[in-house]
Amino acid sequence: MHELKRNLKQLFTIENQNGAPVQPVLSLRLGNHHLGYSITNPGGEVLYSLGYFQTEHTDTEALETLLEQTPALKEPFYSVQVSWDFTGNALLSSVGHQPESSGSMLKALYGSNGQEAVITENITDWQLFNVYAAPADLLHKVQQQYPSAQSRHQFSLAMKEVIAATDAGNVYVDFRPDEFSVVIVKESKLLLAQTYYYTTPEDVLYYLLKCCAYQDLSQQESQLQVSGLIDSDSALYKELNQYFLNIEFRESAWQRTDFPAHFFTTLNDLARCAS
User: What is the pTM of this model?
Assistant: First the structure.
């Protein structure tokens, strides 16, 4: 690991894979303390390059630093897909939703510093609207750099991938630096979509056990599907393995020997949205 600048720490990089890209697709993840990108083909099966970073705070300075350090991100792209992983969203039934009330509702739930942009997505497969906030200046920078970029919230992306679920319930967990998101689906019903902060494996276990108890899920029967920054040799995985009998890594299509395939599953999910 090394620092590109004060607030941008490189965790992983993959460069110059599989030759020159044809119809390159840029996928960009922006979250509270992480920033990642991949360049792939439109179907997301072929990876050309990838970078993943930890940030003090993901803002315009962090994105500008990345653009300065990675000239390939300034090239023209066939498609640009952006995932907003920031906290602060509400999933609402599409029946009776009034878009004009979205901003005031988010403000009531999460407060406001007056610097957010409110975005509303229609998740048609679930008959839901996802209303979420993104930093306005960062959104403006993304739109300025990539005018045709398509945006979606992390939970909108996750729910696109989790339509099918066992009767016992599926728990989808994605780990990033200092945080993880949880999506719980049972019998084709969405039960929970939430992000939690953590510092120790015990923190993660506490939240997951609490989620399962609240949603009446069996730790012995439900499927725990994990992705992101968790290793099978880590203390975190070993802690989870003591309490959950059915743990499965949700892997990306990018099979490599230097990094586990599940590290970048969400970036791979995002890339496939361009197909």
Answer: 0.91
